Amino acid sequence: MQRGSIHDDTCPSFQGALELVGRRWTGSVLAAALQGAHRFGEFRALIDGISDRLLAQRLKELEAEGLIERTVVPSTPVQVHYGLSGEGRALMAALQPLAQWSVRRAARRTGDPEAEAGDHR
Q1: Model-level pTM?
Q2: Does position 120 have pLDDT exceeding 60, yes or no?
């Protein structure tokens, strides 16, 4: 492992990525998009407990970060569709090992041998 200062060029960008992903509901919004949510109501249905205001805020933030793409369909009524961008898909692929680790960790704490073995049905 190469060692460098925690103040080198990679540290601030890595810290920024952790803070972005670590914001409340961000992971849930990204996971819902990965599961195929495209409309605001679909996100709301998949994410228990999120308010409309906070969902709208997170979608705007993730769009500004280039992780979510927003498409307006000029119809009557106007439709707005959301989806993961290429960067969003890359982020979710990078987070998969963390998600698997968290399932294994929770299994160790609860004593669930199937989840601990990596059975993620």
Answers
A1: 0.79
A2: no
